[in-house]
Design goal:
The chain is mainly alpha-helical. It is built from eight helices and seven strands. Helix content is about 40%, strand content about 10%. The longest helix has 19 residues.
Length: about 200
């Protein structure tokens, strides 16, 4: 076992490991094409804190995509009852009324789910902590761009990316450049729909 105090784990690898653990219980969940895309990515609707609970939230979207289920509306912000139904399959609960703007997005692990993934969740938490500690020293010396300085979600301007079957997502171009994001329906990568949008966000 690695000593995380001396050997910080590679966060992207830990995210992939955690995702694979979810797939053990939910085989229809597509592979996570770009685990590093979740690093530094935030959304007030899906959760801004990188954690195993948020990874389960993203897995709900993954299964919905694999089934061809439209689980959100309002540009992906409002999480509907179809999202909630799949979330419950993954051991996530929503005990309150739907939020007016984000719907059933604020799901949390129930006690059985916490027990099932306890070791994996703790391992990911250590990786996130080590990553945060390793990058904190760079904040004063690094230029992160105007969107990050002003607190924009995701650390950059999101643009529209489409796949061959016509589905679309909003993504920060620098995130998409790191590795392909693959559609769960047609298995083709999303590509930027409007190159001018990329230039404008640069």
């Amino acid at each position: 076992m690695h000593d995380v105090s001396t050997t910080p784990p590679v966060l992207a690898a830990e995210l992939a490991h955690a995702w694979a653990d979810i797939q053990r219980y939910h085989p229809e969940l597509p592979d996570l094409a770009a685990p590093e895309s979740l690093i530094g990515e935030s959304s007030s609707a899906c959760g801004s804190e990188l954690s195993f609970e948020r990874l389960l939230h993203e897995a709900v979207h993954g299964i919905a995509a694999a089934r061809g289920v439209r689980d959100t509306s309002r540009a992906g912000r409002y999480h509907n009852r179809r999202f909630l139904a799949i979330a419950e399959e993954l051991g996530l609960d929503h005990t309150e009324d739907p939020h007016p703007s984000s719907g059933f997005s604020l799901v949390t692990m129930n006690s059985e789910t916490r027990q099932r993934y306890r070791d994996t969740a703790e391992r990911l938490a250590r990786a996130v902590k080590a990553h945060s500690a390793a990058t904190a020293t760079d904040t004063k010396r690094s230029f992160r761009g105007p969107a990050a300085r002003h607190g924009s979600s995701g650390g950059g301007v999101r643009v529209k990316a489409v796949c061959e079957c016509g589905r679309n997502v909003r993504v920060v171009p620098s995130v998409l450049a790191q590795a392909p994001i693959v559609c769960g329906a047609c298995k083709k990568p999303f590509t930027i729909a409007d190159k001018m949008a990329v230039a404008a966000s640069a």
